[in-house]
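ok, trying the design again with the full structure, not the truncated one.
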């Protein structure tokens, strides 16, 4: 292993995708509305269904048995809808200006890199190939790999297990309040990179470990003498 890795306190960096490595293009309001309509048709009551796409899926899976459906069946119904919106966002996603260079640099240091996202596997693989960043990742964790989406910690815990890491040997970089909660549940330090989706004050009210405006601001936080 490249000994340059030992300049840092962590062995791996986990990244969210949409809003973090790329701009926010996923149409959450429409996806959520369509999923709610489909779930009501299956027998759910509207007051059982949150209007946040990730929490909606999690709650629907948890309460599926109350209406005589399996959790897997409900997850498949919602995932089919969300897959369509993944493909729609895929036509518009653009990398943050410094993202590819930053990924290349931290890869050269010998750090492991994983993607942990609420997106589906098919569109995620297409996206990172289209954007020429596929080669940088040691692991991809999509919503197809876990039971519950962020803000639950399932995806991050899955990544830790697959890469055989303790939670103090990795850090998570995201852009949302959901990312903060997921990191806390998995016992990871969390860095939030600001984008247009959340106001800085809202992010700070949820106490992330660090807030940055570009990826290169992350390097000092990772060095042994500063983290």
């Amino acid at each position: 292993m490249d000994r340059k890795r030992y300049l840092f306190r962590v062995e791996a960096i986990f990244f969210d995708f949409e809003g973090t490595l790329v701009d926010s293009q996923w149409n959450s309001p429409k996806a959520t509305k369509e999923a709610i309509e489909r779930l009501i048709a299956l027998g759910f009551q509207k007051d059982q269904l949150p209007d946040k796409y990730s929490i909606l899926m999690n709650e629907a899976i948890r309460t599926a048995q109350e209406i005589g459906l399996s959790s897997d069946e409900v997850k498949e119904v919602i995932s089919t809808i969300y897959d369509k919106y993944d493909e729609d966002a895929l036509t518009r996603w653009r990398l943050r200006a410094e993202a590819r260079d930053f990924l290349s640099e931290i890869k050269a240091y010998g750090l492991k890199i994983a993607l942990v996202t609420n997106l589906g596997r098919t569109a995620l693989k297409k996206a990172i190939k289209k954007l020429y960043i596929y080669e940088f990742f040691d692991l991809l964790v999509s919503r197809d790999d876990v039971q519950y989406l962020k803000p639950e910690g399932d995806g991050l815990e899955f990544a830790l297990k697959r890469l055989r890491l303790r939670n103090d040997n990795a850090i998570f970089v995201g852009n949302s309040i959901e990312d903060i909660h997921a990191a806390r549940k998995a016992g990871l330090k969390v860095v939030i990179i600001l984008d247009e989706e959340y106001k800085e004050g809202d992010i700070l009210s949820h106490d992330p470990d660090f807030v940055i405006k570009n990826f290169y601001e992350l390097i000092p936080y990772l060095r042994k003498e500063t983290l």
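Keeping the full-length input from now on. The longest strand covers residues 112-116.
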